[in-house]
Amino acid sequence: MNTRVIHYDDLPQGGFAGIIERKMVLNPELWPNAKDRMDISHGLGDFIYLALGQFLPNDGAPLHPHNDVDIVSVVFNGSVGHKGTLGDGTSIHAPEVQVQRAGTGMQHAEFNLNDTPADIAQIWFKPPKVGLDPAYKNFKLSKDELTTVLGGKNGSFDSNMTCEVGYLNPGKEISLDIPFVVLITQGNGTANGISVTKGDLIEGKALKFTAGADLGLVIIHENKKN
Q1: What's the pLDDT at 87?
Q2: pTM tops 0.85, yes or no
Q3: Distance (Å, whole) CA 226 – CA 224
Q4: Can you list the residues of the chain whose pLDDT is less than 70?
Q5: How far apart are CA 120 and CA 122, in angstroms?
Q6: What architecture is the 4-222 domain classified under in CATH?
Q7: What angle do CA 119, 48, 179 make, to 5 degrees?
Q8: Reading across the β-sheet that carries 79-84, which strands appear in turn?
């Protein structure tokens, strides 16, 4: 099924301020230097960026701006605080997701609330149109369940893409007959017959996935209404 697996540990480590990360997805239209990089994914549709890494203890990113981008922040270990023009004092406690619609423009700072590292994936999408009103939404995650955090279901923002995040019990199966990207945030599983584990990014034309032990994952694909 033209399946490709990108391993977190095979990518160069980078980051900024109080964040250590490895960029696993870069859309070459927005990051031209990524065009010739074969070690990363170039995204899918309006899915344009993914970085996986950590907020260092009691550290993070200072106030910075965004506009016309939908930002999905998945905190799967630890707690991350948020403040900025969309509101101060909001905290994301694992397992939880915050989705920010930057729209016409917003500024925010993100920071680790604890003395231990906070594990996070940050995922960017083009919005369905430019000039939308800035807003954000938080989603709590449950065991043996995938929660739609972008794509118009479960109270999520409308999008040309669907982004689901959650945890599945061993043996649970997922099938998709469209192009996809999957990020394994914890545990392991089998994707199209290939064993995958924490830190792996999988992409392909269709998916048959079986959950293994302690599985956490993110699934991204184009919204089927399109």
Answers
A1: 72
A2: yes
A3: 5
A4: 1, 88-89, 225-226
A5: 6
A6: Sandwich (2.60)
A7: 100
A8: 60-66, 106-112, 79-84, 90-93
Quick one: pLDDT at residue 224? Answer: 73
Buried b (16+ CB within 10 A) or exposed e, 173-198: ebebeebbbbbbbbbbbebbeeebbb
Asked whether the beta carbons of 125 and 72 are under 8 A apart, the reply is yes
Residue 23, pLDDT score: 98
What would the two tokens of residue 88 be?
Answer: 């101060």
Q: Which residues contact 6 (CB under 8 A, 6 or more apart)?
A: 24, 39, 40, 41, 200, 201, 202, 203
Tokens describing residue 198: 């924490």
> Which residue, chain included where needed, has tokens 């590292």?
117
Q: Do 68 and 127 contact (CB within 8 A), yes or no?
A: yes
* Boundaries of every domain in the chain: 4-222
